[in-house]
Amino acid sequence: MRDERVEAKREAESLGVPAAEARALAERLGLEPYPVRYWIVDHDEMNELIAYGGFQRRYPHWRWGMNYERQSKLDRHGLGKAFEIVNNDDPSHAFLQESNSPADQKAVITHVEAHADFFANNRWFGLYADRGKGGPNAAARLERNADRIAAIADRPEVDRDEVERLIDAVSALEDTIDQHSPADAARSVDEPGVDEDVNGPDDDPLAAIEERIAELDLSEEVRRDVFDDEWLEARGEGVEPEEPRPDVLAFLRDYGKRYDPESGKAVDREPWETTVIDALREEAYYFAGQKSTKVMNEGWATYWESVMMGGEGFADPDEFLTYADHMSRVLGSPGLNPYKLGFELWTHVELRAARRDVIDKLLRIEGVTPENFHSRIDLDEVAAALEPHPAIAGAGPATLDELAELAADRDPRVDAEAVDRALSARDGESPGTDSDAGPDSGPDIERYPWKLLTREGLAERHYVLSRPEHRNSLRNVSRETLTEQARYMFDVDRYATVDEALADVDRATGWDRMLEVRESHNDVTFIDAFLTDEFVREGNYFTYEYSRATEQHRVASVDADDVRKKLLLRFTNFGKPTVVVLDGNFRNRGELLLGHRYNGVALDEESARETLKRVFELWGRPANLATIRVEYSDEAIRRAMRRGTEPEGKEVGVRFQYDGGEVTEHDLDPEIKARIAADEIDYDTKPDDWLA
């Protein structure tokens, strides 16, 4: 075993050259990744990193040990091996499993470089930290939080169990941040003395009077008779948001208290408690970027990994089968696979952009219209013309002379300097190539033929419309699509022949469009924009649901709109129920009222009840949650089973309340029910189980 470890370590430490070459190739393809620092770790270290969310140090808490035990068991039984972990940081840190095969290590490195590009350029990751002020600096910030919380837990006057209890409460609500606003909108944990001098917004002279009123336990009618309405409403100023407030965790930080079991009252928090809440909320924003772009990010990394490893032969010939098996397992994982869905969507984005560019040129040929497009244009001729130049497609030692001729004509697809150095080495005018050389010491064109080409050349070499699986995509374009595109064309740049038109086709159009989309979208907007009818049809996507009538799952729809709606539900708000603050002074008793934005999918009520208890710990006073459930009568279910149809249910408003004793259930005021019904987001999702 020791000899195996030594050999694995030796192979892992030889990855410096592939890492440098992968970075050079990624940049030539047009990517702009953060710098990446690679670390080689063993199984135990990798499991520890996974437990800590990809970082080496986190604040003290019992769940890290639980995560470690779970991951260790998965790893031990071959059910959850991690090939790598990479975090969003500048520089990014990538941890590679030392037991990976050489082919796997190369695949992981190319995958990581694409992740680092996504981290550096996607705006949703920018919400965690202002890139203009030195980048995320995530490792340092999370380490600082770890030190600060550990120091708090070590204070003699602080009960360590209370610290962990507070962490439990905040962690249960970490997805209730406003993921569309910058993290720095929160009170910064960097403010001098924040853990010593913070005073809550409730610290005012009238707070004691309000507590005395609460102690009287007066009815609503008496409260309104005795106390002036204007005064009571003023007491709720700032805690009765005019619009539902999505950042529940920030609201609890700003207006919450702590329940004191000895006095049975809400008391002001200790300053250290606010420090802990702020630190954990900041970290929630760090992980929010990853949660909200899982499909995009993994699909992006998988796409560029395939270009580098397969298309550019980054895997040596004797490693390619291992890599192909690796990729097939990644893309073939069951269930909703973000790697596969993301990879296919990115390819669809590329294909649409490239096809639109070609159609734009062909529709500008004199005499060609949407009506006669398929009869006037020889699409076999077009497909042949779009094939890459033979010297570009086969760039390498065998095509040096042809590439040199292109370089002599200043062809933008060829790296003239690299071709010249390769010719000199071949003809004995230099010491030759060094297989261990770095990316700047001379082109090792046998192992890395891409060095002979520019980005334009690589774009032609990998042009989506020349790939076998997409060569007929122009043939499938409908007249409606052609008419729609022609409507927005300006009557300029006309061509006399097909050859003239195709000469102006930009082979990098697909990649350029991908880079644009990568900057601005998250999973929800990505799926909404690019999951088209064509994509659903060609990918054989469908929705399924649980039938109450047959008590089985069944295919519900193959319609693109239905597939899109189900996927949007899966990724909106990280796939969690959307909960907002409706009132911080509910019933004028200082109670908190949260609202579940009901969109057809009911809450898991058991989880909701337990989470409401955590809310109480951060509010210090009774907490309420308004939601809607669908109730089915026994008769409706029997009738549906006889007819083989789905039963008709009734939507009923429910309010759960927790005041430190038991969670109680109450009827929901119709006005509140109307406020939480997300009618503008009608996803029509009736089944309880979907996309499991």
UniProtKB/TrEMBL annotation:
Domain SpoVR protein-like N-terminal: 20-355, 507-574
Region Disordered: start-end pairs: 179-203, 421-446
Matching InterPro entries: Spore_V_R (IPR007390), SpoVR-like_C (IPR057008), SpoVR_N (IPR056174)
Annotated Pfam families: SpoVR (PF04293), SpoVR_C (PF24755)
Span of domain SpoVR-like C-terminal: 577-628
Biased composition (Acidic residues): 192-203
Name assigned to this protein: SpoVR family protein
Species this protein is from: Halorubrum lacusprofundi (strain ATCC 49239 / DSM 5036 / JCM 8891 / ACAM 34)
Source organism phylogeny: Archaea, Methanobacteriati, Methanobacteriota, Stenosarchaea group, Halobacteria
